[in-house]
Amino acid sequence: MLSTRSVASSPIRLLRAYSTEATQELLKTPLYNEHIRLGAKMVPFAGYSMPVLYDGFSHIESHKWTRANCGVFDVSHMLQHRIVGTKATEFLQKLCPTDFAALDNFQFSLSVLLNHNGGIVDDCIVTKHADDAFYMVTNAACRSKDIQFIDSELEKFEGKSDVKHDTFEGVLLAIQGPKAQDVVTKFTNSSLKDLYFGNSRFIDLKGFGTDEKFHVARSGYTGEDGFEISIPNGKVGVEFFNALMEQPDVKPIGLAARDSLRLEAGMCLYGNELNDDTTPIDGSLNWLVSKSRRNPEATFNGAAKILSQIANPKSVHAKRVGITSKGPSPRHGNKIFSVEDSSKQIGEITSGSFGPSVGFNVAQAYIQKPFHKKGTEILVEIRGRLRKATVSKMPFIEPGYYRGE
Questions:
Q1: Start and end of every GCVT N-terminal domain (predicted)?
Q2: 78-161+279-316, what's its fold?
Q3: Which residues belong to the annotated binding site for substrate?
Q4: Which of 26, 83, 251, 259 is deepest in the core (most CB within 10 A)?
């Protein structure tokens, strides 16, 4: 993944880093024309043309603005799902290690879709609206794979006639930063003071000529307070986005800052930290396996392997850890070596960037035991040279999640 240093010094390098689908015909979110009007630099990302930066507002400025004010991210390229039916909970608990039955209505959880070997097909946010109704958001880059996987699993599910899965499009906005609540409150009659992190509800949006209510979750991918609002009505979504842009504390934020913000917050990116061969335990995400599901009767995909890893920590030979350093930023794919024996590779960087909020480089990596312990000095190969770095605690910033005043 791209470092902020290269963002600041070389916009061409930035565009190439995101241009993984340059030869494909790109999709556009409902906000594409608004991004162009706002001076966005558009790049291919996950099959979509997406804003990476906006004219006159650098990556560093975008990052710091979100930490201090309110940044708005177009995440309409993410895939939204409905999973409903009397066996919906049972079906989801086959795909995921989370105990969704234990969630309250309108509570959500980060989870993972698991293949039969315990590998992660994708990470996801699953919101329980009722015992028979769930809303899920998955990654844009895994769109086709996720649909095929879920539908294939449903076809094999014994209670398939009692479960319905579909997806839908629309405007999906992430409104992030310490001023997010003040901003969103201006547009709704619903109080947000009792909507805590990890919960959601449907709210009105006043001034847009509709009586519809829209799903809002107290959530985000930056480590800050914030909301994700789903607006299937594209016309209302565009109007709401434009109204947000008129607020003095709000600026549109692109992919460059989204990546450095999530890195400082210690959050994973599918395809970097997580993949089909990585279990939640490999990824230091043990907490995703609900304690109520850690038993011999567990039926989620890959349960035998995952529960064996939990019971036998020594069976996991490498762990996802945080890395800090000075100098050139570590990047995806950089090799990691032991200080005691610089010829011995002990790991690899999965994501790396300069951290504008902390003033030093932050990265994530998979490192072999026992070199994964906090405080361990390591060497990272960057531009043909071995450079010093340290295994560090994540997240790298203090989270600003809202849990009540």
A1: 31-291
A2: Alpha-Beta Plaits (3.30.70)
A3: 228
A4: 259
